[in-house]
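S1.2 Input.
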Amino acid sequence: MQTESVFGDPGLWALIGMAAMMGGTMRSPLTAMIFAVELTRDFNPFPALLIGSIAALGVTVLLMRRSILTEKFTRRGHHITREYSIDPFELARARCDGPESAECPGDHETYYPAMQSNNQTKHS
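S1.3 Output.
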């Protein structure tokens, strides 16, 4: 018994919905389309997958400021200004974790003079 309806194959709509959800939440519609094609090994629904994934991406971009993948970081207080291109060392503060005999620079000093003074005491 075939379950064809007036709107087409229900499996096709499920596949389009899966690709749309994946493409919208991950903000990568091409990955969602390729995943759906690899899952079914059928290239015929590719245009429908393209439309569904791009539409879901558009809705996600309009409704959410940040990606759902970075939302958890934001709720914890780590604000990512440029998604996926942030340099973690740009926001991190360096601290002295060396041996207790090593000189740790203050806030106004840099690490380079402290390293020079450590090298001079070792060689003398």
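S1.4 Remarks. The chain has a mean pLDDT of 76.
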